[in-house]
Amino acid sequence: MLEITTYSVEFIKDPFGILSGRRYEFLIDIDLDEEDELYSKNGIYIRAVYSEEEGGGRLIKHELIERVTDKLLDFELEEDEEQELLAFCKEHYKEADEQ
Question: pTM of the full predicted structure?
Fold first, then answer.
């Protein structure tokens, strides 16, 4: 289960109109137990790109990044964590439109 501590969401502008749907970038801080294989004393965040289209929303991509170094980590979320991330993005993407 993802323990989200803070997040930000921003609409990604598409001045040329070449992308389908509306894209949003999420930066999500997660809290991990020291026993977790992803744990880093520097902290971990997720950079996710979410697309909202007529047929629904989907994750375009997501990356796990070490907070202090901004080093891309070579790990993947488990399937249930990825579904949780998708649900979180679906719930919060409209906040970017309100800014």
Answer: 0.90
Dig out the tokens for 44 from the structure: 């971990």
Neighbours of 76 (CB within 10 A): 12
> Is the separation of the CB atoms in 62 and 44 below 8 Å?
no
pLDDT at 99 over 70: no
Phi, psi of 84 (to 5 degrees): -65, -40
**Spatial separation of the C-alpha atoms in residues 2 and 60, rounded to whole Å:** 19
Q: What region does 86 belong to: left with phi over 0, alpha with psi -120 to 50, or beta?
A: alpha
Q: Which residue has the higher pLDDT, 59 or 34?
A: 59
**Mean pLDDT along residues 89-99:** 87
Cβ–Cβ < 8 Å for 3, 32: yes
- Whether 73 and 38 have beta carbons less than 8 Å apart is answered as yes
Rounded distance, CA 42 to CA 51, Å?
A: 29
